[in-house]
Amino acid sequence: MPNPRLDILGRPSDVQPHKRQDRMREGQRRSNSDDLVGAELPQDVAGPLYEALADFIRGKVYAHQWSTNSRIPSEHELMDAFGLSRGTVRRAIKVLVDEGLVIQEHGRGTFVSEGGLSHPSGVRPLSFAASLREQGKDFKTYVLCNQVMPAPLDITNCLQLPQGTPLLFLRRVRTVEGAPVLCQESWMNIVACPGLDEADYTRESAFDAVERCSGLRIVRSTMSYSARIAGSEHGAYLRCDKNAPVMTVNQLIRVEDGTPIERSVTWLPAGQAIVGDAVQSR
Questions:
Q1: Which residues fall in a compositionally biased region of kind Basic and acidic residues (predicted)?
Q2: How far apart are CA 172 and CA 183, in angstroms?
């Protein structure tokens, strides 16, 4: 089976417009249009009008007045209610889409999202592929880069290898129902784990490939988390605005004999969470 094709920005070219299959039927959805009667935009939002409109919609969702899966008012309804231009309304909605608060379905409208995916955090290494499977999510993996090249110094230091050691660099985007849910960039130790550069990463996760090629289990990951904006490059990969908030998860992954095997950074768009248990020491 050929690898999925991507356009120049790393976006899947064969993905159809995003549609949720498990949403409530059209007749069961509550309209929020009546909430616009007598409504006013927040007066305490400094900045352009689209930010005030985005804040108004956020307030309705955060207060649970506009519930999950419900349709928000149409562009025309928002334009008429607040005397705004179409461009202002569309920009406000795009901000909220990038935040993961609402989703757009072509020809159907804009809906309050069901909430983000969550991924486990704790004593075990974090496999995003395994996390998606456990949540019953049907995902696709698109490989944007798969190349053996000399690694940067900070990467070889992390993996305890000499400077300039050739490593496998992978950049992958995973999508659920056509929408990108993460971009993952990995430097993989092919010195300790030969054969990694021959795996088909559209079908096999990096964790599975490491364990298959090395014959060792992945047992440990040192993780750190950072809040960032997407930037132009990763905004293109994730199909969000360059100024959209994202979370990055950095992992240094080791197999059971203690060998560091992978250094990765995973970019998560808004609307996702890392969850786990914290235990107070006695």
A1: 16-33
A2: 6
